[in-house]
């Protein structure tokens, strides 16, 4: 079978789902590999790089979608791509099945199989295919780099002949995958780093990375239940008040705030209010990784960088992985390659869409003309 990767059509998207290295691995599974011309350009890979790795290059997206049996891409298909879906073809990409009615309907009526990368179950066995985590890791790292780029001082403290420099103080709100990556980056740059999460079980991880966990004066059992299945639940009003009071105390102290707090299937909780922004020192920076879900900071503007009247920079970019397109493509292409390994147990270049397999079943959102989303809960933890 042929596995093909088109050039991403979403404006500004620089990632690519197949790299020359992943193509070599896919060929070891028995597949022929194909790309659309220029597909890797944004990530630093030329057509010649792919050809050297045994990949054939098609001149148009239409030709690629026609010839490939399996299409691997990054973003959910745009309308102009949905028309290429066909029975017997398998698409592997992010797909947003819960809110992508046009995509789900097209895939069902055309009888195409769709594997949605965000639906890979978050169980140990599937970590190697967990593209949400690989992309969140990049976003967390890049958020700190972006903050540093907009902050006029060093992260680390220094004593130099030209004067004494205090270390920057960084607060990371939300210590999931992106938050932990931000914490690791911040501490390694030498900033004094604080972190908060509604899930108290992450305190140990935060502290092991050299950051200080921010505890609230709050009886844990008064809370509505901070966590379900490793994810956050909505906080009780009392807990939220205690959290906001702690943040108000920290606002004049911290130089950089990275917010990553998300609750599955909901708008992001608003945690950094206007008065907190006003209380921050001029030159401070907020990077809001929840911008796409409405933002954790009241003043965040999605996809923009703004500077408030009191001189606080607020960054609401939603494309951090694409801003590190080579790294993101390498990791994403590896996630895809691992998915293909599980889909090709015989290494014979033939896809075996085993719906009895928890991971494949969980990620499959349409199969042979049926909608198979949402999936049943995984049997293995
Ligand atoms: P996420 O992106 O949904 O949320 C980010 C963080 O925001 C979470 O840590 C959450 O607790 C926190 N948050 C929510 N509301 C908050 C609030 N009001 N204040 C402060 N923080 C708040 O989460 P994620 O990064 O995708 O990870 C969530 C969980 O899934 C973690 O426990 C993680 O370890 C786990 N996980 C497991 C696997 C695996 O086993 N394969 C893979 C990835 C993640």
TrEMBL record:
Q: Which residues form the Alanine dehydrogenase/pyridine nucleotide transhydrogenase N-terminal domain?
A: 4-139
This protein's source sits in the domain of life called Bacteria
Question: What is the protein name given in its UniProt record?
Answer: NAD(P) transhydrogenase subunit alpha
Q: Write out the function statement from the record.
A: The transhydrogenation between NADH and NADP is coupled to respiration and ATP hydrolysis and functions as a proton pump across the membrane.
Domain (Alanine dehydrogenase/pyridine nucleotide transhydrogenase NAD(H)-binding) spans 148-316
Keyword hit for Cytoplasm: no
Task: Report the sequence similarity comment from the record.
Answer: Belongs to the AlaDH/PNT family.
Reaction catalysed?
Answer: NAD(+) + NADPH + H(+)(in) = NADH + NADP(+) + H(+)(out)
The record's keywords, sorted A to Z, are: Cell inner membrane, Cell membrane, Membrane, NAD, NADP, Nucleotide-binding, Translocase, Transmembrane, Transmembrane helix
Q: EC number(s) of the enzyme? A: 7.1.1.1
Lipid bilayer topology: Multi-pass membrane protein
Q: Which GO terms describe its biological process?
A: NADPH regeneration
Location relative to the cell:
Cell inner membrane
Any single GO CC term annotated in Swiss-Prot or TrEMBL for this entry:
plasma membrane
State a single Gene Ontology molecular function: NADP binding
The question of whether Manganese is a record keyword is answered with no
């Amino acid at each position: 079978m042929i596995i093909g990767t088109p050039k991403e059509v979403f404006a500004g998207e620089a990632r690519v789902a197949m790299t020359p290295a992943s193509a070599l691995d896919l060929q070891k599974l028995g597949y022929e590999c194909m790309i659309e011309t220029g597909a890797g350009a944004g990530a630093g890979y030329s057509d010649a790089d792919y050809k050297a790795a045994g990949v054939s290059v098609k001149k148009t997206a239409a030709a690629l979608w026609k010839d490939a049996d399996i299409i691997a891409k990054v973003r959910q298909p745009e309308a102009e791509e949905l028309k290429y879906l066909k029975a017997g073809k398998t698409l592997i990409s992010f797909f947003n099945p819960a809110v992508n009615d046009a995509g789900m309907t097209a895939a069902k009526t055309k009888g195409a199989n769709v594997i949605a990368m965000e639906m890979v179950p978050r169980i140990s066995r599937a970590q190697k295919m967990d593209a949400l985590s690989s992309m969140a890791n990049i976003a967390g790292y890049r958020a700190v780099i972006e903050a540093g780029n907009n902050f006029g001082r060093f992260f680390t403290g220094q004593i130099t002949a030209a004067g004494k420099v205090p270390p920057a103080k960084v607060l990371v709100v939300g210590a999931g995958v992106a938050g932990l990556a931000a914490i690791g980056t911040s501490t390694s740059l030498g900033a004094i780093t604080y972190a908060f999460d509604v899930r108290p079980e992450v305190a140990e991880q935060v502290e092991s990375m050299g950051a200080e966990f921010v505890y609230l004066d709050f009886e844990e059992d008064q809370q509505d239940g901070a966590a379900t299945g490793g994810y956050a639940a909505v906080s009780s009003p009392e807990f939220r008040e205690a959290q906001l009071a702690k943040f108000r105390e920290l606002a004049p102290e911290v130089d950089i705030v990275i917010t990553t707090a998300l609750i599955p299937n909901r708008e992001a909780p608003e945690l950094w209010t206007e008065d907190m922004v006003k209380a921050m020192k001029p030159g401070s920076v907020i990077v809001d990784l929840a911008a796409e879900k409405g933002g954790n900071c009241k003043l965040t503007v999605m996809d923009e960088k703004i500077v408030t009247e009191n001189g606080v920079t607020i960054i609401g970019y939603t494309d951090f992985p694409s801003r590190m397109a080579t790294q993101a493509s390498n990791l994403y292409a590896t996630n895809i390659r691992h998915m293909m390994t599980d889909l090709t147990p015989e290494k014979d270049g033939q896809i075996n869409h085993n719906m009895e397999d928890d991971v494949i079943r969980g990620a499959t959102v349409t199969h042979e003309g049926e909608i198979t989303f949402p999936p049943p809960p995984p049997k293995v933890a």
